[in-house]
TrEMBL record:
Keywords: DNA-binding
UniProt keyword DNA-binding present: yes
Naturally occurring in which organism (per UniProt): Streptomyces argenteolus
PANTHER family named among the record's database cross-references: LMO0824 PROTEIN (PTHR38479), WINGED HELIX DNA-BINDING DOMAIN-CONTAINING PROTEIN (PTHR38479:SF2)
Protein name according to UniProt: Winged helix DNA-binding domain-containing protein
Gene Ontology molecular function: DNA binding
InterPro entries per UniProt: AlkZ-like
Lineage summary: Bacteria, Bacillati, Actinomycetota, Actinomycetes, Kitasatosporales
């Protein structure tokens, strides 16, 4: 069996994830396509991940793709998580992941409505959804609060988890909006405030065209392998949220080829992707929490030393801001209240690495400007650095 070692995996990561300076991209769409999709749970992550990989990083370049020509869109998809991807990738992700997520979101909301005991049912939800979409068509775009003002039904409150320790009273607005967004009938528009804000406005949208689910599985698996391969079945199953049976079916449909990894595990690559990528020039990167290069695999041993994990992850398993050197995570970084980026190295990387890391920090500071970034998922090292 063809063997691909960890050194080659790190070389592929530097090139295919556009992290070495010589392979950086000219557009945010090219960045998203290179890693299949950008994590978007934290609004700032999309900008930080994209700009780390752009030749000319700027907030405006990412905003233009998100809200100008809308060539990047957000979908609630893999692992029931919000991702940003290109409109070329979105139909396959929608059919292979987002449709199932949307159905689960609707089932959960209807269950809460029934348990509340006010007679709220599918008909009430359908009518509320119609009113909400009509209000958006009239307003053009609106925040959740503005939609609630325009649609009285959105101001309804329900009791969730009645009779349990988790019992609480909640408004339905955010849940109805979430279901409409999952169905593709509305989408996030420019937020109130800066690019780091998560208080999005909403605007009307159209669902993605129907795509054959089997073809979509193969398409997503093939794209992922070209970006993240070689990788294991477990890696793909974790990243997508698919079960092992669906993952194996997707790998077979994509024509994946089996290879041997360091340590003896079996990995998979895209068809014909056996030749070695040349190692890029020495490179350093400061990547945000939940960046795709840190979140692309269940087993990250080839680029993340086990000893670094306690400092870089929160209790829920979310990775924070990371410092990279030639395909390995060697530390973490944060932004102090005065705007200064600061980092701590957890590996001994030498003078050349230290100089390139400092240059990347200056590059980051230049395009971030006056913005202040606090990750949604805070890790021990990030908290220490900002204390």
């Amino acid at each position: 069996m063809h063997h691909i070692d960890d050194e080659q995996r790190r070389a592929r990561l530097g090139r295919r994830h556009l992290l070495a300076p010589s392979v950086r991209a000219a557009s945010a769409v090219a960045v998203a396509d290179a890693v299949v999709a950008l994590h978007a749970t934290d609004a700032a992550t999309v900008y930080l991940s994209a700009c780390a990989r752009l030749v000319d990083p700027s907030v405006e370049a990412v905003e233009r793709a998100l809200y100008g020509d809308v060539s990047l869109v957000r979908l609630l998809s893999m692992r029931n998580t919000l991702f940003t991807m290109s409109t070329e990738v979105a139909p396959a992700v929608d059919a292979s992941n987002a449709r199932a997520v949307a159905a689960d979101e609707r089932r959960r909301l209807l269950k809460h409505l029934r348990e509340d005991g006010k007679g709220l049912d599918e008909r009430w939800l359908a009518d509320t959804e119609r009113q909400t979409v009509a209000a958006l068509a009239s307003l053009g775009r609106a925040t959740g609060s503005e939609l609630s003002a325009a649609v009285p039904a959105l101001r309804t409150k329900i009791t969730v988890f009645p009779g349990t320790k988790q019992e609480t009273v909640q408004g339905v607005a955010s849940r109805v909006i979430r279901v409409l967004a999952a169905d593709g009938r509305i989408r996030r528009d420019r937020p109130r405030g800066s690019w780091t804000s998560s208080q999005f406005r909403w605007t009307a949208s159209e669902p993605w065209p129907a795509t054959d689910p089997a073809e979509a599985l193969a398409a997503v698996a093939g794209r992922w392998l070209r970006s993240y391969g070689p990788a294991t079945e477990a890696d793909l199953a974790w990243w997508t949220g698919w079960g092992i049976r669906r993952t194996r079916a997707a790998l077979a449909a994509a024509g994946a080829e089996e290879v041997l990894l360091d340590g003896g595990a079996s990995g998979w690559v895209a068809p014909g992707d056996l030749d070695a990528d040349p190692s890029p020039e020495p490179w350093a990167a400061l990547l945000p929490g939940l960046d795709p290069s840190a979140m692309g695999w269940a087993d990250r041993g080839f680029h993340l030393p086990t000893a670094h994990r306690p400092a870089l992850f929160d209790r829920a398993g979310n990775i924070g801001p990371t410092v990279w050197w030639n395909g390995e995570i060697v530390g973490g970084w944060a932004q102090r209240p005065d705007g200064e980026p600061v980092w701590r190295l957890l590996s001994d990387v030498g003078r050349e690495a230290a100089q390139l890391i400092e240059a990347e920090a200056a590059r980051l500071s230049a395009w971030v400007g006056e913005a202040r970034i606090t990750p949604r998922f805070r890790t021990p090292l990030e908290r220490e650095l900002t204390a």
